Amino acid sequence: MNAATGITGMAGINSTGYMSNRTLLPMLALLVLCSLLLVNSQYQARRLFIELERTQLRQRQLETEWDQLQVEQSNLARHSRIDGIARTLGMSAPGAARTQYLTAGGKH
């Protein structure tokens, strides 16, 4: 320990209590590098957050579209609608004389 300055023999610190240029420059370079990495990571975080918000918006839109398609499908598949269209086309349910029953063995 230096009695005049109260500083122990730390690496890179001279007897006046200041850092030498050999220690200061690498530490300054490290500080600049860390700063640039911090800015880059913040940029990436913002970019990913914006992408996440866009994806969530698209998901909500697709869910809404899916719900609308399910409602439309149930409306189109209603028995009364199909029966009405069939009658409009002149179709009718087949009678017993036109019905054939098949068995698992393939014999009538």
C-alpha Rg (nearest Å): 40 Å
Strand segment count: 0
Number of helices: 2
Helices and strands, in order, run as HH
Task: Summarize the topology.
Layout: H1 21-76, H2 79-88
Structure description:
This protein is an all-alpha fold and 108 residues long. It has 2 helices and no strands. The protein has helices spanning 21-76, 79-88. The longest helix has 56 residues, at 21-76. The chain starts with 20 loop residues before the first helix and ends in a 20-residue tail after the last helix.
Brief summary of the model shown:
The protein is mainly α. 61% of the residues lie in helices and 0% in strands.
Key traits:
108 residues; mainly alpha; 2 helices; 61% helix
